[in-house]
């Protein structure tokens, strides 16, 4: 049976230069052969071959590749402190694979940056907190000033203005009453040492007492008016202060505090990234296929360090599908796949991607990506595959 299959493979390779052929006999035979092999207990085929009947085929050679494969490198230069994996190790997503030296120094930078963030946050919070306290104090000052106005107004409203001062303003009354007091004092002065029973002294003393009372009343009235004016001024200032504070903290101070905080956060993020970049971690679960460095070596950004691949999800990528043939292929086309290394295995697949740009190298070839419906257990990265793509007539 293997000789028959190998004969067909040789015939297939001889005809490979013809890009669009009718392969009904070959595909039908492959399906029959696959069934026979399964019945004999040899290495099973991955799937039953697609019955393509007499549909035209486009044939090409491909290579088995992991769907996800990554060459890992560092983002800044340094000395390798630890290589934590070996070739062939199976790793989990996020697992640390390699670490550079300098961890302690960068951890100190992170701690310093984090302290500055906390300090900047506290300063911004204090700005708002102090503003809230100032706003509360301003409101309290407003209430006190308003009460002071009411009290001053009450004192003034309940003050009885002497009859001889009703036509005078408070300031004028003080002036006039002071002149009368001075005159009464001067008139009384010559008699101050006279007997208390002296009639002239008694009359002058009564006039002096009246002048003093009128003057005191004028001064009290003026004092009440001044108190009211002062209270009104304080009330106006308290109201302005409250209105200003009710708009929020000083925008300039807030802008400075916020800028400081943003700068601190950026510095912390940069330090944390630098610390994280000391380590190379697995981007996904997979297998380490290459390790290019050892502990103590100097490495640079972009230098290949490790190769990680997901070997559980292999696919086929064509290597020689030319511009004439690729024009006949579309996403979703069914494919029959065979392998040099696995002569008894036939796998069905589907075209999932067609490169929009020609591959580099000799000739104008395009890469077509094919997903397999089942992955043979013995299939390995890098094996050669032959694909027959069923295209429209």
Brief overview, please?
With 393 residues, this protein is an alpha+beta fold.
Would you mind describing this structure in some detail?
The protein is of the alpha+beta class and 393 residues long. The protein has 3 domains: 2-67 and 313-390, Elongation Factor Tu (Ef-tu), domain 3 (Beta Barrel), CATH 2.40.30.170; 75-100 and 278-307, OB fold (Dihydrolipoamide Acetyltransferase, E2P); 107-258. The protein has 7 helices and 17 strands. The chain has helices spanning 2-14, 24-40, 103-157, 170-188, 199-245, 251-276, 323-326; strands at 20-22, 56-66, 69-72, 78-83, 90-91, 96-100, 279-281, 286-291, 298-299, 306-309, 314-318, 321-322, 334-339, 346-354, 365-366, 368-372, 384-390. The strands form 4 sheets. Strands 2-11-16-14-13-17 form a 6-stranded antiparallel beta barrel. The chain has a 4-stranded antiparallel β-sheet with strand order 3-10-8-5, with no helix packed on it. A 4-stranded antiparallel β-sheet has the order 7-6-4-9, with no helix packed on it. A hairpin with a 6-residue loop joins strand 13 (334-339) and strand 14. Helix 3 (103-157) runs antiparallel to helix 6 (251-276) and helix 4 (170-188) packs antiparallel against helix 5. It is rod-shaped. The two termini are 32 Å apart.
